[in-house]
Structure formats: C-alpha cells, structure tokens
Amino acid sequence: MSSTSNRPLTLHPDRLFSPEPIQRDIARELHAEIAELPLLCPHGHTDPRWFADNEPFENAADLLITPDHYLVRMLYSQGVPLEALGIAPRDVDAAGGPGEVVASPRDVWRTFAEHFHLFRGTPSGFWMNHVLSDVFGIDTRLTRETADANYDRIAECLTDDAFRPRALLDRFGIEVVATTDGALSDLAHHQRLAAEGFAGRVIPTFRPDSVVDPDHEVYADHVQRLGEITGRDTTRWDDYLAALFDRRKLAISLGATATDHGHPSAYTASVDAATAQRLLDGALAGTLDASGKETLRGQVLVEMAAMSIEDGLVMQLHPGSHRNHNRPLYERFGRDIGADIPGPIDYVDGLHALLNRFGNDPGFRMVAFTLDETTFSRELAPLAGHYPALYLGPPWWFLDSVEGMLRFRRAVTETAGFANTTGFVDDTRAFLSIPARHDVARRVDCRYLAELVSDHRLELDEAHEIAHELAVGLPRRVFNLRPPEA
Q1: Is 455 contained in some domain?
Q2: How far apart are CA 467 and CA 465, in angstroms?
C-alpha cells in the first residue's frame, strides 16, 4: 500500500455515471455536449467585495475552510473546537479554556487536513478534491503529511493574477453570479462594478430577512434604519411596504433579477391592513407572540409577491431551517457556524394564501426550495405541476448531493416534468467550489437522463435537449437572465 504522503489525487472521467455500460455510454455522450457550457449562478452567496476590489485571496484557510459551514459543522461534530478552525468568539477576551487562542491559517489548514478523512463519501469531500485538483493542480491527496505542501502550493497560486476573483470568473466560465444583499445594503460594491463595466455579470439579490422576521435579533433596529435611509416612517404599515419597495428598486437598478426569503416556514397569510399594522406594532415593541410573528412573516411574503408582479423580480423561498439550533454556540460565536437544522414543512396549506392570489398571474414567478424532501412528490411536484407561477428549485443545502439530486429527479419528474424546475443553480458562498457543484449536477442529470433513455422512456435526441435546458436554458428563463451579446 502506498504511504499517505504520495497517494494520487485524480478525478475519474466517469465519476457519478452509472456503472451499467449502456447507461454509462449514454451519460458520457450527453455530458460531453454540456460539460463546457457557461455556468449560471443566479442564486448564491458570494461576496461582491471580492469582485469589486479584485484583490488576491489571502490564504487557503480563510478562503476554503473557515467560512464554509458544511466543513465547520462536520469537524465540530467530531470534537474540533471552532477556534481551531479560525472562528473567533464574539468576545475573545471572555473566552476561557484551551480554545481561547484562535488558530493561525496554516494551523487551521493542518487541522482540516488531519481530519479530511471525515468527509469521505460526502459532497464536501467531493467538492474539495475537485477544487484541489482542478483549480490548484494538486495531484496528491490531502492528508496530515501533505498539508503543508498543499498549503504552500495554494499560497503560491494565490499570488498569481490568474487567481484573482475576476480572472476566476472567466476561467470558470461563469456567465453571471449573484450575491446576497440585505435590505439596508447601499450596494456600493455593485455600484463600483457597474461603473467598471461588470453590470449584469455580478448581480445583487434582494434578501430582506432582517427587516421582515420579528425573530431576528436586529429586527427593530433594522426596521428603524430602513425608515431612515428611505425617508419613510416604517412604523406605519404602508410606509414600511413602500420602503421595502424602494430598496428593491435600488437592487434592480444594479442588475438584480430576484429576491430571496429565508423564512422558518412556508406559511403565507391574508390579513387586512389594520391587522397588519397591529402585528407590525407588536413586532417593533417586542410583544408579539409566536403566532403573530408567523402571521406577520406570512403577510410580508404575500406583499412581496405583489411587489414582484409590479417590478418583475423572481421570488425565491427557502423555508424549513431551524436557525442557530445550538444556542450556546450561537451565543458565543454568532450565526452561520453550521448549527442550522432542517425541519418539516407544509407547502400545500402554507403557500395557499399566496398562490390563491398570485399563482395564476403571468407576471409572477416563484421558486420554492425545500429541506424537507418528503414534500417533493407529495406536495411540491403537484403544486408546481399545476400553478403556472411556481417552479421547483434544485436540492438545497443538506440535499445538495449526488443521492439527493437523484432522489429529487425521481420524485418530481413524473408529476412536474423538467420544465417546472429551474435547472441547477448553486447555493454557495464557497466561490472556488462553484465549478465542482455544477459539474456534479450536470453529471447527475446526465446519469438520470441516461437511465430514462436506456429503458426507453425517453429518446436520445430528447435527452440531449433536456440536458442543455437543465444546464443553461431553464436558469436563464426562470431567472430572467440575458445571455451575453454575440
């Protein structure tokens, strides 16, 4: 057996295809046609500052490990303290015990390499190997013994102008990439990008969670600030909605095509303006109970749908995550450290108020994601297979995996078809993993299409057309993206 210091890192050309020869050959043929198509990323969480400043990324740990909650949660589950992953407590001086000192980037990388075996068989492991091999040209597997050599190789690459953010956009073939921007953001980075000719290449997405969710810790302060920056009295329901619409218009002026809503549930409401005002009053005063908060969130979703009909923004809903489930960890380190856990969702009753008003309107388009895959065939596929306004987003977060994607296609295709889905859009803040994620999705889709062709449920020419649609056609149309001019 070879030593752990020289085990080769390779990407097999038939990875993720069926081992059955006929299906594998069909998948190869389909994939060859779409492998080099541009990447469309209309839903993501990249940082607009990267592209506006276009400065070199600093080091492997800060780029690939510390901000990636997929990696952090697994390592934490195996006893690795967050400080060892470069994550500082909110108040470092108050942190006691051996985890008080936050690790250096090289030590973070060494810790990750020592524990990389934990990611065998996971999407994170697959993506990381793709990044190491395809992006950085590393040809030995990441282990404790190879950690320093790989870290130095990445550090050397990051000094090259070819690894600056804008150059990587071109290298990866990214036609458009979206960021996630709060309602209070001045979008200064996007304004700089537009001034430098990047309009339409890096676009904002309007994400108003902190000013529409009464459970958010900054809700009251952010609603007040929303009023200050728009010149409206956001304690009044009508002005509050007008202020939200004002901020949407700013995002649109800089290329936004969509909104994004990360609600606890899919509940939508239908209450009159007087009731909505009472709910807003209670939320701002901090006296609203759980039922009232749910109703207020649900009413705002319906109001956002009405705004979408007026301004054309595609509405995305990401419900079902119990945020900050590990409360002691949240109190010490804050949000987005891997402690968000999926829960059950009711889409049929939850979305009824919204779809009853707008589901048949040709001017409205909504993309629903889920963390509750039991709803794919029972609720979401029948809903999307009926309402013209509703599309199904791809498997998200915990389901963004080979098996999750296959289960999704098998659960929804017979009821909703392919055209009522968005095709693949990545949901990541890990910029360098975007090509890996699209590669996985395209291979899985080709595998599924090859299965349909091999048992004569689909003709080969139809499979070629669908593969192209899933890769670029559907994302462009669903998210109103314009292809680059010839």
Answers
A1: yes
A2: 6
